[in-house]
Amino acid sequence: MNTHKGGVIWFTGLPGSGKTTLANNVQHVLLQSNIRCVIIDGDDIRHKLNRDLGFSEEDRMENLRRAAEVTRMFIEAGIFVLAPFITPRESYRTMIRQHFQPEDYTELYVKCSLDTCIGRDPKGMYALALADQLPNFTGISAPYDSPVAPDLKLDTEQLALQQCVDRLTAYIRSKVKVKS
């Protein structure tokens, strides 16, 4: 039986900023604390549910709209969602926020400089984009708008992974409402 309310942390940040790594580590801690949670990852959604979409502005918006709808179903079932998506445009983040009750939604900016993200390049995507072999890549040939007013910001250049995990876990625990 679920004993807490659902909600979502919507991660935004450049590719390679640490969104998915942070989500995976936080999920592990939350599950150990009996907080039911799921990760709805941008890469997984893109390759499975939304494989029919490309990277045009319209397709990016539709990809995120579908992800928000799936996320809302989990929230309604009382499951906490960690949603690491690049969500590169402020207009996309505004649209996403409108899908949720204010108390259920947190926008988390995973801040990291482009240079550091390029240096990390966990999937080799920046190398391809810089060689003009990957068009419309966020941060290189497609824009990333830094969030205007995120609910929470974690700088993965300045903070160690465990510090980010601890801060985000504490934040989530303060937001989760235990049902009686």
UniProtKB/TrEMBL annotation:
Gene Ontology biological process terms from the UniProt entry: hydrogen sulfide biosynthetic process; sulfate assimilation via adenylyl sulfate reduction; sulfate assimilation, phosphoadenylyl sulfate reduction by phosphoadenylyl-sulfate reductase (thioredoxin)
InterPro entries on file: APS (IPR002891), APS_kinase_dom (IPR059117), P-loop_NTPase (IPR027417), Sulf_AdTrans/APS_kinase (IPR050512)
CDD domains referenced in this protein's UniProt entry, alphabetically: APSK
Record has Nucleotide-binding as a keyword: yes
One Gene Ontology cellular component annotation held by this UniProt entry: cytoplasm
Keywords for this protein: ATP-binding, Kinase, Nucleotide-binding, Phosphoprotein, Transferase
Transmembrane regions listed in the UniProt entry: none
Pathway linked to the protein: Sulfur metabolism; hydrogen sulfide biosynthesis; sulfite from sulfate: step 2/3
Limits of the APS kinase domain: 6-155
Designated name of the protein: Adenylyl-sulfate kinase
Organism: Candidatus Pristimantibacillus lignocellulolyticus
